[in-house]
Amino acid sequence: MGWLNRVREQVRSGITAPSAIRDVRVLLDDMRLVKDEAEIALMRRAADISAAA
Q1: Minimal CA–CA distance to 21: which of 3, 43, 36, 39?
Q2: Nearest-angstrom CA–CA distance, 49 and 51
Q3: Residue 10 CB neighbours (<10 A)
Q4: CA–CA separation, 24 and 7 (whole Å)
Q5: Could you read off the pLDDT of 2-52 as tens digits, one per residue?
Q6: What pLDDT, on the 0 to 100 scale, is given for residue 44?
Q7: What is the DSSP annotation of the chain?
Q8: Does this model's pTM top 0.90?
Q9: What is the count of structural domains for the chain?
Q10: Cβ–Cβ < 8 Å for 7, 18
Q11: Full domain range(s) for residue 9
Q12: Closest Cα partner for 21 from 7, 10, 32?
């Protein structure tokens, strides 16, 4: 876990570590449901490429 090693290094250098670690998967799952126009265009292009293969 690279992030954990970075936090440990910061603590050793005097930076306060986070007091809690939160599970943000629910928020990320909800965010994945919303697509902007650029994402939709990329998905359509990927579908076109796959269909042509």
Answers
A1: 3
A2: 5
A3: 13
A4: 18
A5: 888 888 888 889 888 778 888 999 999 999 899 999 999 999 999 999 999
A6: 97
A7: -HHHHHHHHHHHTTPPPPS-----HHHHHHHHH---HHHHHHHHHHHHHHHH-
A8: no
A9: 1
A10: yes
A11: 2-52
A12: 7
Nearest to 6, CA basis, from 30, 17, 28, 47: 17
- Provide the CB-side half-sphere exposure for 44 (13 A, CA): 7
Q: Answer for the pair 3, 9: CB distance below 8 angstroms, yes or no.
A: no
- Residue 19: DSSP 8-state: S
Instruction: With beta carbons less than 8 A apart as the criterion, state whether 42 and 36 touch.
Output: no
Calpha distance 53→17 (Å, rounded): 50
Token pair 């650029």 is at which residue?
38
Q: Which residues, including other chains, have CB under 8 Å from residue 17's CB and lie 6 or more apart?
A: 7, 8, 10, 11
